[in-house]
Amino acid sequence: MRIPRRNVDIAIIGMSCRFPGAASAEEYWSNLCDGVESITFFSDRELLGAGVDPSLIANPSYVKAAPMLRDVEMFDAAFFGYSPKDAALMDPQQRLFLEVCWEAFENAGYDPAAYPGKVGVLSAAGS
User: I want to staple 16 with a disulfide (CB 3.0 to 4.6 A). Which of 39, 59, 70, 104 is the partner?
Assistant: First the structure.
């Protein structure tokens, strides 16, 4: 059985993203063009201070680096209608998702609460 296709036009008019070392699409593109290293490297002292087991730090296979996102603790719970307690219980990825979705609307110049038509967000993630 063949399902007929409908022609549906869409327009991508705004975008937002978060990457290590880049809090916006513009900053990410600039980092790519300029060859910026966006991985954070940690000293033994920093790792010990974070509670990493000393034997793990001494292991030559242990990688003392990670892709870190900035300002992950800056979620505005009230803006999104959450209590501070509920926001603290949320998966951090969900908090970031809400922020990036709203930023995409702002980047496009749309207030989804005031726009008379339909607007939406297409999202993707990877690791």
Answer: 104
Q: Which two tokens stand for residue 29?
A: 């593109």
Among 120, 95, 127, which Cα is nearest to 13's? Answer: 120
Alpha helices in the chain (DSSP H): 25-34, 44-49, 54-58, 84-89, 92-108
- Is the Cβ–Cβ distance between 71 and 23 less than 8 Å? yes
- Own/partner long-range contacts of 39-43 (Cβ < 8 Å, ≥24 apart): 39/65, 39/66, 39/67, 40/65, 40/66, 40/67, 40/68, 41/65, 42/66
State the residue for tokens 């991508």: 12
Backbone phi, psi, residue 3, to 5°: -95, 125
Tens-digit pLDDT profile for residues 102-120: 999 999 988 888 888 877 7
What is the average per-residue pLDDT within 46-73?
94
Record the tokens describing residue 62, joined without a space: 């242990």
